[in-house]
Amino acid sequence: MHERSLPAxxxxxxxxxxxxxxxxxxxxxxxxxxxxxxxSASSCRVTGELVGHKDLVTGFSFCQHVGQSHICVSSSxxxxxxxxxxxxxxxxxxxxxxQNSVAAVHWSPVDKNLVVSGDEKxxxxxxxxxxxxxxxxxxxxxxxxxxxxxxHSWSSVAVGYKDxxxxxxxxxxxxxxxxxxxxxxxxxxxxxxSPVVGEDAVCTRLEDMEATSGESAGDEKSCYLASGxxxxxxxxxxxxxxxxxxxxxxxxxxKRGSAVDPSVKERLWLHVHWPKGRPSQLVSxxxxxxxxxxxxxxxxxxxxxxxxxxxxxxxxxxxxxxMSSLRLQDGRELLISTSMDREIxxxxxxxxxxxxxxxxxxxxVYALSFSPVGxxxxxxxxxxxxxxxxxxxxxxxxxxxxxxxxxxxxxxTALAWHPKxxxxxxxxxDDGKVGIYxxxxxxxxxxxxxxxxxxxxxxxxxxxxxxxSFGAAGGKPSYSLYSCSGEGVILQHDPYKLSAEASDxxxxxxxxxxIKHKLSPHTDLSWKPDGKVLAIxxxxxxxxxFEAPSLRLLCSIQQHHKIINALRWHPDLDAPAELRCLxxxxxxxxxxxxxxxxxxxxxxxxxxxxxxEPYRRLCGHTSKITGVAWSPHHEARLVTVSYDGxxxxxxxxxxxxxxxxxxxxxxxxxxxxxxxDPDVIWTGGKDFTLQEWKVSKQEFTNPxxxxxMVDLKEKMKxxxxxxxKNKKSAGAGGAAPPEANGEHVAGVGKTAKGQEPSGEDEExxxxxxxxxxxxxxAAFEMQRKSFSAVKSKDKPDVNLLKKKKPRSxxxxxxxxxxxxxxxxxxxxxxxxxxTHSSAPPAGCVPGQGEHIHLGLFSDRQALYRMFEAEEDxxxxxxxxxxxxxxxxxxxxxxxxxxxxAEKGELSDHLLSIAPMAGFEVWSRAAEAYVKQLCLQEQxxxxxxxxxxxxxxxxAVDLLRSHKLYREAIALVKARLxxxxxxxxELYTCWAATLxxxxxxxAAAKCHLAAGASFDAAKVIARKNDVPSLTAxxxxxxxxxxxxxxxxxxxxxxxxxxAAQDWIGAQEVLSSQENLLVHRLHFCVAELLAATPxxxxxxxxxxxxxxxxxxxxxxxxxxxxxxxxxxxxxxxxSQSSAGxxxxxxxxxxxxxxxxxxxxxxxxxxxxxxxxxxHLTRGVLSWLLGDGGQLVKELWRAVAWPRDxxxxxxxxxxxxxxxxxxxxxxxxxxxxxxxxxxxxxxEAAAQSLQAFVHYHRLYEHWWSDSVRIQSGVPLPASGDVExxxxxxxxxxxxxxxxxxxxFDASALLSERHAACQAAQRSMGEIQERLAAMVLKHSxxxxxxxxxxxxxxxxxDGHSSACGEPSDKQHLEDPETLLSLSAKMSxxxxxxxxxxxxxxxxxxxxxxxxxxxxxxLARFSPSVSAxxxxxxxxxxxxxxxxxxxSKASRWFLP
Length: 1451
Known about the structure:
By secondary structure, this protein is of the alpha+beta class. Helices cover 31% and strands 22% of the residues. The chain has 39 helices and 59 strands. The strands form 15 sheets. A five-stranded mixed sheet has the order 42-43-44-45-49, with helices on one face. The chain has a four-stranded antiparallel sheet with strand order 1-57-56-55, with no helix packed on it. A hairpin with a 6-residue loop joins strand 34 (412-417) and strand 35. Helix 14 (939-948) runs antiparallel to helix 15. Residues 204-218, 256-260, 470-475, 707-739, 742-801, 1092-1114, 1272-1297 and 1347-1371 have low confidence and may be disordered.
């Protein structure tokens, strides 16, 4: 294999991507490969690679157990965990237990078979190496950053997360969380366990003693855990207590001679490492890549010590990612660190000095070149935007390299040492830049002012050619710098005046050789070592040889048929004369040709010679050639590198393969022979590595066979086509991915010179494709990316990524150019005959038939014939737009427009050129285009074209017909007068549409614009909420719609009143005129609603439900308050006149209707209806109409009574008549009613009866309260309840001493008879309904068994009472008898006065029972009153319930 090697740079932003075993073998994850490096105290050597992952390696760990230390494990973004044998470099097992990118992996230091891994979604998996089993846990739904297995307990694992949380889990108990360690504020970058058991090794301070006291002493497995976080702190945690015991802030170390970078803290990666055997010492990274040793037993500034202070430049120059330690057999302890500066360093933990540094590469090795002056000085051009210069002959430091990055800022793709001046190195970059570095000085490079447009592929030093003229005057050597780039241009630069414009040598070539045709793009150049001859390779595979300095063309070599990628002259030094003119060339056809140009050079021909046969042909590579190099030690010995991934050494004279090197992974890009060792060759390529190898030690002689390199791919353990790198997207919730820190590969080598890549060339580097092509500073400080990438399982289809090729306008003639080669050559002969002969060949008509394609190269008539044939083909294929353009090209504009109109293919372009055919043609085309646009539903565009035809009304109709009212209105208002009738029609139609869709506000605006204010107000009111009604009322009032404004304002006010918003209702009504009476009504409703809550609490009365009004309130009743409020706030009084007069107001209120009371009307609505009658009553009072006042008061009281609100009725009576006298309406205004008419008198009596009725119940309730309070019973005491319910009410004391009202008003004989008749009629109606139902069921056969017997047993009650059982059985009721009784009761009701039925009294039988009950306890009920009550009970209390209750009072 190889001798020395520069490996790929370790991946960035991984918590554990490198590890070292006890044998001194270091494993480093770089891209998707693990590099194995043998380390010692003095040197290191890359020994091999572990190849197999398809994505970036994110973690690597060795098994640290004796006898198994050669086994290692790796994790990757491809979701796999792979176990490897580092000795044999083979894969042992692959496990796919994760569904997402794996973020970290660690091999347990305690259990030799346990491996723990975690992915970006928070899944932790335990892998058992000896059995292959796995177990998954999900301790926290967070993004994992790092994992560390305890070195003392196999089941204890620490997991660090992105949000700063650290979790300790027990894998033996299904991942149970034992502790959650909170303290860090940002990402956990690293975790490290203390190497010793227990928590007493660091306890030297008081706070530490306190933190670790208690149960920690008794826990044998407890130990400290160190953590490093992006929050710039290190913390030491007690795993027994689950808390932080020490916090250390990173020191900021300003580098000597450098300014402070304010963004350096943002690029922090804080890795911690706890060396074995050093429990009180901890190593951590710092801001700028420095390493710090912490002494945990000390405090203050003396706590930490910086590594590498003995000499300058030992520390890393960028942040450090990973550290691992190793104890050698001699007892020395080494620390290995990897950094963003692309260096791997080895440190002596005793002296803290750097032992050695291994440079690494972060991109493709595009170019390598040994200095012809400084022996052994090797320059590398790398895709990480840097140049490395390696002194390969140094004995003390095998990897003595210097890096140059200033002024480059792009991939370095070409290098060339000055042939005479030591240390002068020219470079070319991917962005077309050419510059010169003086590698032995610290000055920045000189940059040429002439930039190439594409990538610079070749640089060469050679003698100057005109027009550049600077000889050897002044001791300056006569050399110019030549650069060749992807655009096919070779520029000549003055190395001593790079600011001057470079010259293009194509001018000199044209002038010298009198070339008129276009030169083929150049792809490579090579000067013969003696500077007399220049060879230039071209894109077409031709090699041209020129004589300097005039660049006269000597010969043209036409053997390659593909792009020339490499040219190299045989060296002149000590070579025989017959070999000095050998030129080796490699192209994309995988064959290397060697040309002997001795005859041409020594005896230049008068005219350029054409060489078609090579001197030697070297066949064996299976893919394009990317580089060639002659041996400076052998005669005719050549090495070539290829895209087949191998380097081949040839014996040119024998055309024999000597040795084949296969140590690289991927294709090779550059090669050079060691200038000091004939057996050593250096190669670089896609795998980010530079490798030194010996020709004599290679196993193979020939390149691998097969275009797809099957054997080589099997060795690489990868497929023919590898999957592309996942597209990474920065997002919350994803961990930072490891980065390969190279460049994106979009065709490597010379593929950008004009040739499409094929075969393996199409494949991109699956890992390198994720790496940022940032400039050097940015490349060093690439920001972290997201782990949460969507996995792309398949390679995207390249064809889908290409831009779709447009359809050909001339497909028939184009297809003729895709025939066999013989036919195409015959076409040329035929065309020549047609062009240069007066008589064309027989049967040949250019533009027709088999010669249709020749119409493009013949006269106009032939072209027209070709167009006709093409038109027929387009019509048949349905491509009418192509037909239109063909006619347009022939000048038949009118025909083109007509065809486009017929086929619906008119366009803006065609219409724009239509005026060329005249106004009429344009008008017809515009009208046709309007119809086409309408079919395509482009109505606005169609209307615009109608406007161009001055058809304004048609445009408006078009917009209106498709409901584009807004645009139509805008058009009309902009172009027509304001009184245009069509405008009103548009507004009306739009309003109807908007109203239908529920956009009432917009519809109202349309109505307003159309002058329909009434409709606008009605539309707004349709929403029927308070804001809409308010706005509608205001709109109607402003517009002069008085009646509508009043109606809407009243509706709004009623809604506000229903919501108890009295102020809002008054404000709405006050904004309208002539609504004073409704304001009075709502004022009364507000006063009426101010009833004590207890009165409205429940329908069932209680003792405290209606307390007696105090004397002050008795003197000021509700009517007085209403009248005073009206006069104070509204100016309405008895003396008011005009629209405030009582008569006018009463007349306005007469239209307000009151519905019939029902039991389901809510109390607020009941109060509103009651307040309406009270308002009418007060207005009648102001007019002096006492009769109407009484009737309205009766109706106001009847509303709550009839709807079942007993308490509200009682409260209203109390507030209306605080003295209990109906005839006295107001003491304040000295109003006493004197009623002479019958109806008012009857209303007053009924009202008075109800007042007494409520007073009667107040007495009853107050006695019940006294009984329930436990007052001793009087001597006359044992009485049972009136209704037969045995309760403690009957045991109460005597009631009040006397009644404070005339109870005889409740015992009206006529009302008792009326009520008895009505009650009997109701019972008879129920009996009749039951009989009818029973009869109908019997007729239908639905009578249940036994139902008839039950009916007979139950019997029938008489219409007027309940007869005895014997009488019932002897005299059953029939339909006729019941009808007769119904007629009798109706006659009885007819004989009663109408006022009795119009103004009823309370239930007389009920009042009799209450009075008799009160008489048992109170002497206030006179004997005559008792006797009258008993007589009424005997006469009218014959129904079942009254008869049962009266048994207690009647003998």
